[in-house]
Amino acid sequence: MLRNKVTFVWEAPQEAAFQKMKKILSSDPVLMILDPGKETTVTADASSYGLEATICQKQADGRRSERNCQEFQDALSRNPQKVPYKREELEAEIDAFIQMITSSLPASSRRLDELRVSQLKDETCQKLTDYVLKGWPSKKEVDTLCAPYWQNRYEISVQDGLLMRGCRIIIPKSHQAEVLNQIHEGHLGITKCRARARRSVYWPGISKVIEKKIKSCTACIQESSNRHQPLIPTSFPERPREVLGLDLFKYKNSWYLLISDYYSRYPEIARLDRLTSAEIINHCKSIFSHHGIPDVVRSDNGSQFDPVKTVEFKDFAKSYGFTHISSSPKFSQSNGLIEAAVKTVKARIKKSRDPYLALMAYRATPLENGFSPSELLMGRRINTTLPVAKTQLQPYSVNKKVLEAKEERRIEGQKTNYDKHHGVRNLDELDPGQNVWITDRRVTGKVLQKTPYPRSYLVQSGRRVCRRNRKHLIPSPDFHPEPETEDDSDVTGYQHSPADADPGCPSLMSSPQSPETYPERASSSTEASPDPYVTRSRRTVRPPERLDF
């Protein structure tokens, strides 16, 4: 029926033959109980689809019966024996098993003897031994000292005079601190230390004790780092020039000011003759005169923008009516858009002979949302060296709903990817007066207060106060004041007086730092010119100043 060129037919005769064959195969003449005394033949067949095997036995009348051979074992892996064990043999095997457990413990005989003696002196261990030997009472009648062991009572036993839970030695209270130090002697993490303890020792609450021990270990704290926290994305502005970001960058021995719009990502660059607040303010005024004053200006906490070190930029923000927001030192991520803009602009300048054409090309190139920075800022495409129809240069209105929808998806995607990639976790809030380890400065400090900015704190270290993001602060229970460091390039310049003892609302007195404190971004009298290069013939090399932008 299955051969080629043969019509497949399945009617009443075929169905009757099939049912008859099924009945014969499932009847007694074919399926018999296996008899080990009869002649037996194993027939096996292997193919690419599976393995099939049968056992055939020759019957008295010459017929062969076949039956699948299966052996079912007890669910608890106990193989029933025809001849039962004698009681003496069974007890001997149990004793041998117990001796194997005690002999394989990772401890010397002297150490085990010390623990036996300590257990005999420990009141809790003595009561546990009585319960094990005489039987456990009901939960209400159990002594309060032994109550934590109740849920594990069936695992507790006395082996060779040693109180144990399974294969783990129950450590008396007098030895718990010593054993805890031995568990953490390699300064392993919480998971590894717990795994190490599970192999040999036990007492109630050991898991939490190990966690507390590691979190308070000075050596572990000083060499650890915080997990990344969930990303806090910056919301997309409602209009161009509403939020600006600014930063300084160095290229070929010259410093530049970069200003970028958070709405259009339109970069503007100005060369700085001096790294002073006054120089930066003058360039900001010039750029603001082109497109208007923003509502918010975001920057890092450099000396030119820090209101504690200089009041010039603070007064400038007040007179022009915009809000200035600075990021925590050593945490450029909070002003990520401008940091990314610096990388983009520097890359374009390095690769191009004419940096102005490179900047113009970037301003005319569409972003992820499909619009170029010039379109988002000015509502039109700019004319470049690339041929374009003049009709494409006419002003037009950008579809704001489409733009906002695309930007919302982009921001959500960035947050999702960041959180997934870094395995983020929220860190606990720090309280005023809490001792912390400042990871980037490698000194201890004390939290004074939380700033108005997210995850940002003022921390006192020695006689100085610095501002840090929560990422750089690790709670340190054991506080040891550190001597004041020479390099204060990352502190805020706050000085905390004895009158400011109230941690809830400390009154901080400020004093500007000396110019030597900031070698790269110096105070108002420091210029950006580097030391001249001198050849072996003592000739001073003066590189030419090109492009002057």
UniProtKB/TrEMBL annotation:
Pfam families: Integrase_H2C2, RT_RNaseH_2. SUPFAM superfamilies: DNA/RNA polymerases (SSF56672), Ribonuclease H-like (SSF53098). It comes from the Eukaryota. GO terms for biological process: DNA integration. Residues 508-528 have a biased composition (Polar residues). The lineage of its organism: Eukaryota, Metazoa, Ecdysozoa, Arthropoda, Chelicerata. Residues 236-403 form the Integrase catalytic domain. This is RNA-directed DNA polymerase. Residues 472-549 are annotated as: Disordered.
